[in-house]
Amino acid sequence: MTLKYHTQMSDELSMHLLTTPLLYRILTFQANPQHTRVVRIIIPLLFATVMVVHMAMDEFLLHAVSFGLGVCLIASRTLRTIRQQITDPVVRKNIQNVAIFGSLSFVFGYFVWLIDQWACQTLANIRHSVGLPLAFLLELHGWWHVFTAFGGYIAVAVVDLITSGEVRKDSTEHLAWPIPVVARFMGTATTLMKLD
């Protein structure tokens, strides 16, 4: 097996290593012990099945669909949990905005990753033709890492925040960049839209 194959597989394994614990945490938050036991069995089985099939068969569709579904499930359950757990409307809106930004970052990253998977050689040819600095913009696999890193960090931070009971009035200000900037920007944008 080539180095490129191993690098790609470890890259794709890391995608599921991010979503699997988040799924477990958000699906078992305030759940009864029986539900938690079932989730504790099902999630690792699904993870192992997807990764074994993906690696053994070099199969892409199951991997891409399962990752996308995992992200959608995390986003929807997180937004619902925010509505249930945060009573202060200003704080709730602030954290919802950050969660939505994180979800959109993930979706955009996922979209460019899919394009890169299906049009890799064409994009490489175009990058070679246009040269730097424009080729940088067409490095979709790199953009995938940037946007999913934002989305991944925001997902981890928000899920941890809402499931740990540590939500304060200024919760987003204590998190790493870009969350404070996103919270301020989206809060300002929301205020401006209400004024129109």
From TrEMBL:
Residues annotated as binding Zn(2+): H141, H145
Membrane topology classification: Multi-pass membrane protein
Transmembrane residue ranges: 38-54, 60-76, 97-115, 142-163
Protein's GO biological process: ceramide biosynthetic process; ceramide catabolic process
GO MF annotation terms: hydrolase activity, acting on carbon-nitrogen (but not peptide) bonds, in linear amides; metal ion binding
Compartment annotation: Membrane
GO cellular component: endoplasmic reticulum membrane
Required co-factors: Zn(2+)
Keywords noted in UniProt: Hydrolase, Membrane, Metal-binding, Transmembrane, Transmembrane helix, Zinc
Primary subcellular site in the record, as a coarse category: membrane
Pfam families hit by this protein: Ceramidase
InterPro entries given in the database record: ACER
Family, per entry: Belongs to the alkaline ceramidase family.
Name of the protein: Alkaline ceramidase 3
Organism: Aspergillus tanneri
